[in-house]
Protein: Alanine racemase
Organism: Streptomyces boetiae
Amino acid sequence: MPPAIDSLADEIVDHRFKGLPPDAAGLTVRELAAERRDLYTGGFITPVLTLSAEAVAHNLCAMDRFAGRHGLLLAPHGKTTMAPALFRRQLEHGAWGITVAVPHQARVARAFGVRRILLANQLVDHAALAWVAREQDADPGFRLLAFVDSARGVRLMDEGLRAAGAGRRVEVLLELGAEGGRGGVRDAARAGEVADAVAASAGLRLAGVAGYEGEIPGADAEAVRAWLERLCALAVALDREGRFAQIPEIVLSAGGSAWFDAVADAFSRLPPLSRPVAKVLRSGAYLSHDDGRYREVTPFNRRPHEGSLLPAFRLWAQVVSRPEPGLTLLNAGKRDIAYDLGLPEVQAVRTAAGRVRRADGLSVTRLADQHAFLAGPAGPEPGEAESPGMPEVGDWVALGMSHPCTIFEKWPLIPLVAGDGTVTDYVRTFF
Amino acid sequence: MPPAIDSLADEIVDHRFKGLPPDAAGLTVRELAAERRDLYTGGFITPVLTLSAEAVAHNLCAMDRFAGRHGLLLAPHGKTTMAPALFRRQLEHGAWGITVAVPHQARVARAFGVRRILLANQLVDHAALAWVAREQDADPGFRLLAFVDSARGVRLMDEGLRAAGAGRRVEVLLELGAEGGRGGVRDAARAGEVADAVAASAGLRLAGVAGYEGEIPGADAEAVRAWLERLCALAVALDREGRFAQIPEIVLSAGGSAWFDAVADAFSRLPPLSRPVAKVLRSGAYLSHDDGRYREVTPFNRRPHEGSLLPAFRLWAQVVSRPEPGLTLLNAGKRDIAYDLGLPEVQAVRTAAGRVRRADGLSVTRLADQHAFLAGPAGPEPGEAESPGMPEVGDWVALGMSHPCTIFEKWPLIPLVAGDGTVTDYVRTFF
C-alpha cells in the first residue's frame, strides 16, 4: 500500500478525537505514539475505547491460519473497522482484498491504496460508477468486483459506466440469496437472466458467484450447509454453460464471521471447474472479535482445535454519580457503546489508586445518550447505604461489548494498548 | 467566536465524508459550497443525509422567540449536533452558552471559541480537570459550569483542580434528581451536604442549581411540574441560607426538548431571590427536530400558538436490490440511520428521471448494518411480480428519522439543502 497510510501518523491529535489526552493537543499521532503513554496515568480522558495490541495480533494470525489451512483467500469486510491501518495489517497477513458495502467505503479503501475491492452489493449509483470508472482507468492494477442480482441492476450499472466513459469493464459476481433473506437471486432461472444481461452488457464481465449465508432465514448449521451447496452448484452450472470462458479465474465468495467453518467445508467439496477458483471468505468481525454476539457464534467454538479469537475491545468509563443506593452512573452511553446486539458486560473496576478488581455481579441495565446505568447483583440491604462491590464516584469501569461494527464506528482514533497498559499506537477510523 | 470556525470551510472534501461527491475530491468545503450543486444531479452518492436550510433557520428562530417570550436563556445541548457551525448559529440567535455532557464535547466547543460551557455532569476526571484549569486560566472570559451531586464528587473535583494548579475557581451547579431517575441529589439533606462541601473547597464555587426533568421516572405533566417546583424550592432554600452571597447572579437550569413549556411555567413562578437569576434552558433537539420521538413530544404540540418546529433531516438512500416480491433493499442501514427511538419513516420516492412521489404505505421493517428492508402496504397479489408503488432498483428513497442525537452522530459532513435542491453549505460534526 502506498505512503497515504503513513500520512495518518502525521495527523494532529486535537479536539476531533474523544478519549485522547487534552495535553497531547498539537502533537502528531506519530509523536504521541512515540511517547508510549500509560493508558491509566497518561492523561487520557474518559470514556476511552481501547484495542488490545496482543488480541489484534492474535486474531490476525488466527484467521490467516484458518484460511490458509482450508485453501481460502480472505477479503475481510472492511465496513467493520473502516480503519486503513487495519486493512494494511490484514493485507500484510495475506488478505486477497478488502470487502466493502457501499461506494463510500470503497473510496476510503482506495484512498489508502487497496488494489482489490469487493463491493458486496449491487452498484447502481451513477456518481459512484463514474468514480469506479476513473479509478479503474487510472490504475490498471486496481480491481473492483461488485455483486449483481437483477437484469435491471446490470442494465443500470452498464448505463452508468457508459455515461462515465469507462474504459475497462467492471467485474461482477452473481449474488445468490435465499427466499426471505436479503439480496441475491432466489433461483437458477433468475440467475440465468442476470448472467445473460451481464453477457449482453458493454461494461461488465461475470467473474464468479457470491452470497452471504448469514442472512438466510433461520440460519442454522443445516440451512447454511444446504444454501452453501446451492451456491457451489450455481458456480458449477454457470461454468458448464461456459459463462466463465473469458476469464482466467473464477471467484467464489461467501462467509461472514459466524459460519466460516461451514464455508470452508462446502468450498472444499467444490468439483473442479474449467478455471482455477479463488475461494474468498469475507469475514470482518474476527479482527477485534467481541464480548457478546461473536463470542457466542464464532466457528472456533465448534472447532477449538482450529484456533481461537480474543476480544480486543475494552471501553473504560468513569463513575460520575452514585445518586441513590443501587444506582451508579457511568459517563459513557449510546454515543460510545455498541447496543444493537446486546448491552455491554462489566468486566473490571479500577480505583484512582490503581487497584483493579473483577466486577462480579455488576451489570449495565440501560443506556442513555451519554450515560450507562450500572446495577449490582442486588439492591443494598435495608439500612445499608450501598450494596457491596459497587464502584465509587471517580472509579474507572471496564466494559466489554457486543458487535464490532457498531463499536468501531463510534471512535475515530482508538488507542492500541499493550497488556501492561502502554499505548503503542493509534487506529484511525473513517465512518 | 474566533476564526477557528471559518477554518472548517478550508477542509478538503475527501474520502472522510460519506455522501459527498467523489468528483469534488480536492476541493475545499468553501469551494464546493460555492458551486451550489444540486443534491440530485450534483454527484452526491447514496446514502446521503441532508439538513433543510429552511427548517434549521425556522427552528433557530422558533426557540429564540420562545425563550425570549418567557425570560429564559438558552444553552442548547451541544451533544446533539456536535457541530461548531450550528453552535455559532445558536449563539448568534442569542444563546447564552452551549451545554455538553462530557469533557470531550467541551473541548470541541472550546476549540471553536465557545466562551460559556455548561457541563451537565459531575466532572471528576483529573486529566479533564487539568484541561479546564488551563483553559480558564488562559482566558478570563471563559466560563465552565459543571454539575455536582455528591460530597465525594466535590472533593475529587477539588483535588483535581488543586493537582492541576488551577488559578480560578470552577463554578458548579447543584444537581437535583429524583428517586429512580438519573444523576442529582434526591433530597434537601444531601443537597446541604454537597453545598457544604463546595463551600469548604478551594477550587469550586456554587453558582446555582440545575437538573433534568426528562429523566424523572414516569415523567408526565404532573410529575414534571412537581419536580420543577422542587428544583425552584431548592434554589430558594439555598439562597435563604446565604449560599449565593459571593456571586453576582444565580443560575437556575433545566429543560430538555420535551418539557420546556413546563420549565417556562415553573421558572416564571420563582419568587425573587437575593440576586438576579439566569434561567437557562438546555434543549438541544429543537434545531433539527425530527420525524419521530420529538415530533410527538415537542411542547409546541400543546402550545401551537407559541410556535412550531420543522423536521430538518432527510436521508436519501438508493434501492440496490428487489430480490423477491414484497422485499426491497436500500443501501443505508444502522451505520447511517438512527434506530434507537424507532425505525425511520419512508417519505418519498425519486426516480432516476427526477419524478418524486409520496411513499404512501411503504415502511422500513428492519435494519442491518448497511441495509434497510422496505416493505409495501401488503404483499403482491398471487401471480403478481410486485405490489404497486414499490420503488425500483436505482430509485432514491427519502427517509425521515427519530432522535436527532443519533442522526447527527453518523454523519461527519452534512449538506445543508435549500427547498429547491441546491446545496448551500455543509455542516461539519465532531463525534
Q: What stands out?
A: Chain A touches chain B through 76 residues (CB under 8 Å). Chain A has twelve helices and 18 strands. The radius of gyration of chain A is 24 Å.
